[in-house]
Every structure is written in C-alpha cells, then in structure tokens.
Amino acid sequence: MSDIDSTLKTIVARQAEQMQLMTAMQASIDNLTKINSDLKEDLSALKNGQIRTKFKYINKGEGGVTTETWTTRPGETDDAEIEEIMESRKAAGTWPLKRNFAKSFSKEVDLVKIRFHTSEKHSHKPIRIPKVEKADGTYGGGNKEGRLICRLCSGGKANRNTSWMCSTCQVPLCVDYQGSPDHSCHYRWHSCDDLIKQHEIVNGALKNKRETKKRTGGNVADLHEGMIPKIPKVDAG
C-alpha cells in the first residue's frame, strides 16, 4: 500500500503543478488579450486621426494614490475649452509658456490639450516671431531680429535660432523642411506624445552636427535632413 500511496501523492503533486501552470498560462493569455485589445483601440484611434496617451494624476480622494487614465485626443476638446485654458494661464502668468517647454507640453494635461487640439481657429500654423523693439510683456520682448531658439531641438550648448513659432502653442519651432515636412521640429512637436524623448533625439543630432562640423571644418548635412528618423504620418482615412 505504501507504494500506491506514494504513487498517488506523486500524481496529486503533479496535478497541482499542472494546475498552477495552467493558471499562470491563463493569466498570460488574459494579459495578451488585453494588450491586443489596447492595440486595436490605438489603431482605431490613429485611423481616426486621434492619439491616445496615458496620463498620471494624483487622486486626492484615494489618499494621494497615483492613478493612470487614458485620454484620447483630439476630439475631446473644443475651442471654448482651449480658450478657457489659455485665459486661466494668462491670469496666472503662465501663458505663453517661458520655460520647460517639452516637459510641460508632454506632462501637463491642459497644455497637451492645447498642443493636440486643432480647429479652424487654432490651426497650429507656423507664423513669424514678432520683432519687438523693447520688452513690453510680449513674448520674445526685446528681440529686434524676431528670432528665438527652437524649443525642441535646442538645449545645453547646442541651440538653433528660428524665425517661426506655432500660432496656437506660441512656441518657437524650426520649420526648415529641407524637402520633407516630416523632419521639421514644428511637425514633430504636433505629431508625437513624448516631446522629452524627441528633444533628446533632435538636440543630440544638433550636437553631433556641430561637433562634426567643428572637427571637419566643413559643411555637414542639415540637422533635419536624413539624420533623424521620420515620424510616420497618421492615416486619417
């Protein structure tokens, strides 16, 4: 009987292991199913000209627990909400933005809404930076040349001046297309979620360009020409 008992115990143990394995496999399947569902939602959003981003916010009602939530853009905002955001920031002295551009326009929900909201009134078209004789409270005040550093590719010791800014975001951005709008900082600013990462990419490319030019003593390819991978266009069809 001891041999039978031993065999039964072995069988039961193996069955328990198999059940644990099946449970783990089911959990993996459920997780993959959820990921697949999210990817389908993302694809659908992209086809409709939308971009989905996961924002973190502090839920004070839950004792300050950090919570994540999905926000779909554009389409969730209208002109009235955007103008209310701008007026509220003007009253607080934080509009137009004057520092931490990439971080703020990636992390602060109201600024993300401004960056991705597009309408006839808020078209995000490139406009000339105004020439200002003296500081009068106007953004870029005191700049007689009407030029400011690009707030996406500039940083540290590698800065690049531009005469253009976004009409809606009020942020100076390069519009040097060099034959392809997919390379410009203006296009990238309005086409990607993570501006912090994009800043690292384009600023790194600018630094490399300057260092290469210094070493060779000659001309090198433009910053936006072939050195940085293109951002794929969204098919809204």
**Element pattern in H and E:** HEEHHHEEEEHH
- Helix/strand class: alpha+beta
Instruction: Please count the helical segments.
Output: 6
Gyration radius, to the nearest Å? 26 Å
Distance between the termini: 73 Å
> What percent strand?
5-15%
Adjacency order of strands in the biggest sheet: 1-2
- How would you describe the oligomerization state of the chains in this entry? single chain
**Main β-sheet, in a few words?**
2 strands, antiparallel
Q: How many strand elements?
A: 6
Shape category: elongated
Contiguous uncertain segments of 5+ residues = 46-74, 225-237
**Estimated helix fraction:** 40-55%
Query: What integer is the average pLDDT?
Result: 76
Please specify the SSE layout and strand pairing.
Layout: H1 2-47, E1 51-59, E2 65-73, H2 79-92, H3 101-107, H4 109-116, E3 126-128, E4 148-149, E5 161-162, E6 164-166, H5 185-189, H6 195-216
Antiparallel strand pairs: 1-2, 3-6, 4-5
How would you characterize this protein structure?
This protein is α+β, with helices and mostly antiparallel strands. Helices cover 43% and strands 12% of the residues. The protein has 6 helices and 6 strands. It has helices spanning 2-47, 79-92, 101-107, 109-116, 185-189, 195-216, and strands at residues 51-59, 65-73, 126-128, 148-149, 161-162, 164-166. Strands 1-2 form a two-stranded antiparallel ribbon. A two-stranded antiparallel sheet has the order 3-6. Strands 4-5 form a two-stranded antiparallel sheet. Strand 1 and strand 2 form a beta hairpin. Helix 3 crosses helix 4 (109-116). The longest helix has 46 residues, at 2-47. The chain is elongated, with a radius of gyration of 26 Å. It starts with a helix and ends in a 21-residue tail after the last helix. Residues 46-74 and 225-237 have low confidence and may be disordered.
